[in-house]
Model the fold of this input.
Amino acid sequence: MTARRQASTTSLSKYARASSPDPNVRSLDFCNAFWGLADGGVDVLFARMRGAARTMDELKGFWKERAQIEEDYAKRLGKLAKLTAGRDEIGELRNSLDTL
Done:
């Protein structure tokens, strides 16, 4: 594969090079950072995107599991709230137990 460098229409590097005394100074702008020998920068971007997609799948699974746990917890708390405690008590203790 031959090395290629494409000029960017949004790049400001032409202005930076115009006042630069050294013509060998390479442009460090983002849009031109991914072209060159073997287009290695593009491979780095693709690898990062694949990693990000895996991370999103992991997070999706995590939040689904968390939602299921929360749902089960809410059901169990609902069942617990229906249980009566201290039905033989009277007075203030009875009022306190009723609020639980």
